[in-house]
Write a structure and sequence with these properties.
Layout lengths: L3 H9 L5 E7 L13 H16 L2 H20 L6 E7 L2 E7 L6 E5 L4 H9 L3 E6 L3 E8 L2 E9 L4 H8 L2 H8 L6 H33 L4 E5 L1 H10 L2 H4 L2 E6 L6 H30 L6 E3 L1 H9 L3 E7 L4 E6 L5 E2 L12 E6 L3 H7 L3 E5 L1 H4 L6 E5 L5 H7 L2
Parallel strand pairs: 5-8, 8-9, 11-15
Antiparallel strand pairs: 1-2, 1-4, 2-3, 5-6, 6-7, 10-16, 11-16, 12-13, 12-14
Helix pairs in contact: 2-3, 7-8
The structure holds zinc ion.
The site of zinc ion (ZN) has 8 residues, from loops.
């Protein structure tokens, strides 16, 4: 399973001898149903091509990890729809994922972009399903949906029957709440009151569970009356995190629940990404609180003035980092600040490490969402920009 902690350890690795492989292994694709699936052919070719390009001494270091990747691919069972591998001397991590990743292979500093993007795209959300006598709380993350809580209503009809005498026969025959006359409408009212108390309890239990797990997106589902009542009973902070409501039948399978809820969660994710980019675009002015373009963003990042960096997952840019003072820039040649040596970095691959070093959060978004940003990269500033930065950007 993919977790942030393991991935962070990869991001922190300061080494340049790592193969980073991501693959689409989706078994529903025809080309993956052959004895030798297309992703295996692609990887064999990509590894050979990459290794052939390395200098002889680098190639000697890289060769064992390359062979291990190919052996793993040839032997592994067909599982999941995506695969990611990090491999190098004394390093092996593989992740099987329930969604496809782009086919991508690099050698050098670890490239965690495909996985970080997937964690952003498939960020956790909760599903609270409510019915008349049953409720479920589920958590979905990285394309997998798991039930974490089942709550049942225990209707205490025994006691009521006792009190209302002749109710016993009519309820048994016609079912709860379908009786006739004064007695049965009293019964009906008591059942309804029990339902409403149950739904309030479900709302409270769900709020407690989700707060404990730090989940900030909720989809409400189930039958209309129950879902509506649970929604209305949610404590305010949780009610504001509801991103949608869907009708789901009782006893729906996890696969069915996921198929109904994931499109809502993805739509919410993409809307958030567009809002983030829009807030950068609106504030990229003299004295504004955001900035865009590769050079301006890197400069603000190195100054420690960025809270959040937002970047196109597929952007391709070259950057330079000064080995002695850490200044970031895009121009080749010695460091503009201290004349020290600079090393070449590739973006977005270097962004996880750079944002970590400079205390900023990284939001990787699709090329579509990032389109309004100059160079597909920008950020939210801690302090309003000085005019000079904007002049350089040509605003
Ligand atoms: Zn320098």
């Amino acid at each position: 399973m993919l977790d942030t902690q393991r991935l962070n350890e990869i991001v922190k690795l300061d080494r340049d001898d790592v193969f980073s492989l991501s693959l689409n292994t989706d078994p529903s694709l025809v080309e993956h149903q052959r004895p030798k699936p297309a992703y295996r052919v692609w990887t064999h070719n990509a590894v050979q091509r990459l290794v052939r390009r390395l200098a002889p001494d680098v190639r000697r270091t890289a060769e064992p990890a390359a062979q291990r990747i190919l052996a793993h691919l040839d032997a592994m069972p067909q599982e999941g729809r995506g695969l990611a591998i990090f491999a190098g001397p004394d390093l092996w991590q593989d992740y099987t994922l329930p969604f496809p990743l782009p086919n991508h292979l690099t050698y050098g500093a670890p490239d965690t972009i495909p996985l970080l993007w997937a964690m952003h795209e498939y960020a956790p959300y909760a599903v609270v399903l409510a019915f008349h006598d049953h409720a479920r709380v589920l958590v979905a993350y990285l394309g997998q949906t798991t039930a974490i809580d089942e709550i049942d209503l225990e209707l205490d009809t025994e006691k009521w029957r006792f009190k209302t005498g002749r109710m016993a026969t009519s309820t048994r025959r016609s079912g709860v709440g379908v009786g006739r006359g004064i007695q049965s409408s009293a019964f009906e009212a008591r059942v309804l009151a029990q339902y409403h108390r149950f739904w309030r309890n479900v709302a409270v239990a769900a709020a407690r569970t989700l707060a404990a797990r730090g989940i900030d997106r909720v989809i409400i589902g189930g039958d209309q009356e129950a879902a509506g009542a649970v929604s209305a009973a949610l404590p305010r902070p949780l009610r504001e995190t509801v991103i949608g409501t869907v009708a789901i039948r009782p006893h729906a399978s996890l696969a069915e629940i996921q198929a109904r809820t994931l499109p809502l969660a993805l739509a919410d994710r993409h809307a958030r990404d567009r809002r983030l980019v829009r807030s950068v675009v609106q504030e990229r002015r003299v004295g504004g609180t955001a900035i865009d373009g590769t050079a301006a963003t890197l400069e603000a990042l190195a100054d420690g003035n960025l809270r959040t960096v937002v970047a196109n997952r597929d952007m391709r840019a070259t950057a330079r980092a000064c080995v002695s003072c850490g200044a970031l820039g895009v121009k080749p040649g010695p460091c503009a600040a201290c004349s020290g040596d600079v090393r070449r970095l590739t973006l977005p691959q270097a962004l996880p490490m750079l944002t970590r070093q400079h205390g900023a959060a990284l939001e990787l978004v699709s090329a579509d969402a990032a389109a309004p940003l100059a160079d597909g990269i920008g950020g939210l500033l801690r302090h309003p920009s000085a005019g000079s930065v904007n002049l350089r950007r040509g605003a």
